[in-house]
Amino acid sequence: MFAMVMTWSGAVVGMLVLAVMVVTGLLVDSEQQR
């Protein structure tokens, strides 16, 4: 049970990090294009 919770939390954190990286990448691209 504990390992399952750790795996789920790890996957959620990974997806959050990916989302933040994508958003920051888009913001940087839009800033550079100006």
Summarize the structure.
The protein has 34 residues and is mainly α. The protein is built from 1 helix and no strands.
Description:
This protein is mostly helical. The protein contains one helix and no strands. The protein has one helix at residues 2-33. The chain is rod-shaped. The mean pLDDT is 93.
Count of discrete alpha- or pi-helical segments spanning 4 or more residues: 1
- Mean of residue pLDDT values: 93
Beta percentage is: under 5%
Q: Helicity, in percent?
A: over 70%
Structural class: mainly alpha
Low-confidence runs of at least 5 consecutive residues: none
Note the main sheet.
none
Task: Give the CA-CA distance, first to last residue.
Answer: 50 Å
Order of H and E elements = H
How many β strands by DSSP? 0
Radius of gyration: 15 Å
Secondary structure blueprint with pairings:
Elements: H1 2-33
Observed structural traits:
1 helix, mainly alpha, single chain, 34 residues, 94% helix, rod-shaped
